[in-house]
Amino acid sequence: MKRRLHVSAVLVALAFLSSCGEAGGPSTAAEDTNTPGGEGAAAIDSTAIRRFQIEVPDAVLADLKDRLSRTRFPDELNDVGWAYGTDLQYLKALVAYWRDQFDWREQERRLNDFDHFKTTIDGLDVHFIHQRSPVDGARPLLITHGWPGSFVEFTKIIGPLTDPVAHGGQAADAFQLVIPSIPGYGFSDKPREPGYSPARMADILAALMDRLGYERYGAQGGDWGSIITRALAAKYPDRLIGIHLNMMTGGAPPGVDTPDAGVPVEELERMRARQAFMENERGYGQIQGSKPQTLGYGLNDSPAGLAAWIVEKFRTWCDCEGDPERKFTKDELLTNITLYWVTETITSSTRLYYESRTAGGTGLGFIKVPTGAAIFPKELFFTPRTWAQARYNLVHWTEMPRGGHFAAMEEPELLVNDIRAFFRTLK
Predict the structure, then answer these.
(1) Least crowded by CB within 10 Å, which of 12, 134, 280, 323?
(2) Are 330 and 337 a contacting pair, CB within 8 Å?
(3) Does some domain include residue 138?
(4) Dihedral over Cα of 388, 393, 399, 400: its sign
């Protein structure tokens, strides 16, 4: 894939993208040691790509442990399990593990094995992993997360996608990966003004890929990542090779009197079953879409409250038969939760629901970019294939045998194989 050198003198001088197409990480423009919510010490070119290393201060971790030790748990009705929300006994065990056994420094070391960077776009520092492939000519692929996930979701698929030969695949399936933390999440800055809707997030990610020198690339996403990727395809179709979604959204075809006509009965039943499931799952979205600030006071102050809010979604939205640890280890769950805690991004992350609800002019029209869909059976929504075809240039559709909302964490091999299969068909 052709790369265009960025015109910035800083980036050229540092040979961020070598014209000979060498693999390996970009050079360092400035060292940016993380202090949650802080800034790099040196004055730097706002267009520079700066290396970033995760280094949460000891004081933040000590405060977390102290708060966990002083958790004031609520009461619970007898023998109700998860029916009223997060199960008390499960949360007590998770909090005890978080306090006494979870090793953030070990997880931090594992995360720092990837190549992290920051750059300033739209007045915000944007954090991203840029993991280069050892394969010359590997395709660039932008992967975008959602809520309550983060870039941590993708750690299991980075190796297989960047170095397929080392993971039993073929060199032709290699990708150069760009995995951002969308603004308001993880180590990216929190927006300080209203208006950071999915469409504006798409603008930021398009600017990021441009700054990295990628003229043409693929994009992949689920949850908000799916919605942002769709906006990216609508606004920048000439830049995209194709988009791959593991949460396919789309209403009934516009201008059709009987939208169910021609839809197989089993697909209609599946759609209605997922709609019925979501009837009892919409509360989080209502509060995050209307009063995220009010919610944030509790979740930003209580790590146990934060854990209860997030882990309940991982349990309910995954294909795990009611036991989240059938699919995720405690360390995996807590690494993602701890990321929200140490960066204090639970409030800013939930504001995306408000921004999406209040954004005007959100009609995107037909998506002309070739689109692939990975349909996991326990995904939150199901869109009939004919409905998807009315809204996307749908060229790839895979019905997965298992899996839910967190595909990259739950079923990384299934997702990797489908991403490879989809982009293999595109030139």
Answers:
(1) 280
(2) no
(3) yes
(4) negative
| Owner of token pair 């489908």 | 418
C-alpha span between 212 and 215 (Å, rounded): 9
Residue 225: exposure state from Cβ atoms within 10 A (0-12, 13-18, ≥19)? buried
Q: Which band of pLDDT confidence, cut at 50, 70 and 90, is reported for residue 255?
A: confident
The torsion angles phi and psi of 206, rounded to 5 degrees, stand at -65, -40
Q: Which residues pair with 176 in a beta bridge?
A: 140
Whole-angstrom CA distances from 214 to 70, 127, 252, 269, 407 are: 49, 17, 35, 42, 26
* Contact between 219 and 208 (Cβ < 8 Å): no
Question: How many domains, in total, are found in the chain?
Answer: 1
Asked if residues 190 and 36 have their Cβ atoms less than 8 Å apart, the reply is no
Active-site amino acid positions: 223, 353, 405
CA distance 27 to 20: 15
**For the CA atoms of the chain, what is the radius of gyration?**
21
pLDDT in tens, 68-108: 999 999 999 999 999 999 999 999 999 999 999 999 999 99
**Residue 311 belongs to a domain with what CATH number?**
3.40.50.1820
pLDDT per residue as tens digits for the range 383-414: 999 999 999 999 999 999 999 999 999 999 99
Q: Nearest 5°: CA angle at 359, between 353 and 361?
A: 140
233, with CB counted inside 10 A (0-12, 13-18, 19+), is buried
Alpha-carbon distance of 329 to 146, in angstroms, equals 20
User: Would residue 76 count as lying in a domain?
Assistant: no
Strand-pairing partners, residue 53, are: 33
| Confidence grade of residue 44 (pLDDT, cut at 50, 70, 90) | low
The Cα angle at residue 327 between residues 62 and 268, in degrees rounded to 5: 125
Cis peptide before 148 (omega within 30 of 0): yes
Query: What letter does residue 194 receive in the DSSP assignment?
Result: S
Residue 242 sits at φ, ψ, to 5 deg, of -175, 165
Task: Please check whether residue 81 lies inside any domain of the structure.
Answer: no
Residue 268 counted as domain residue: yes
Range of the domain at 227: 9-57+105-424
| CB proximity list for 145: less than 8 A, separation 6 or greater | 151, 153, 154, 179, 181, 182, 185, 221, 222, 223, 224, 225
Q: Is the pTM of this model over 0.70?
A: yes
